[in-house]
Design goal:
This protein starts with a strand and ends with a strand. The chain has 2 helices and 5 strands; from the N terminus they run ββααβββ. The chain is of the alpha+beta class and 103 residues long. The longest helix is centred in the middle third of the chain and has 13 residues. A 5-stranded antiparallel β-sheet has the order 2-1-3-4-5, covered by helices on one side.
């Protein structure tokens, strides 16, 4: 599988953030708090969704942790390639898993 493009509409501090992946290894070198971990969590959420973290304390719950700083629903899209076929995942996340949308 090859990641092609990632668009974050809202996810934590990331807002209207677009990344195009290059062939090979992609690296991000940025200061603390720039959103490196948030971006990797966003990619994971695109594939697997955001859990509700029932057993975690409030500050660790993913829905609370990645609720957009500017408010509103959060989500975006991820384009990837498997073999010679391209796929695009679009997700938006609400306050509860029942509010999530996937295409």
């Amino acid at each position: 599988m090859k990641l092609i493009e990632c668009y974050v509409e809202n996810f934590g501090l990331l807002h209207r953030y677009k990344v195009e992946f290059n062939k090979g290894i992609n690296c991000w070198n940025a200061h603390n708090g720039a959103g490196k971990t948030t971006l990797t969590s966003f990619i994971e959420a695109m594939f697997y969704g955001v859990g509700d973290g029932r057993k975690l304390i409030n500050d660790e719950k993913p829905r609370k942790k990645y609720t957009p700083w500017q408010g509103g629903r959060f989500g975006g899209s991820l384009t990837f390639e498997v073999g010679k076929k391209k796929y695009r995942i679009e997700r938006t996340f609400g306050q509860r898993p029942a509010d999530d949308e996937f295409a």
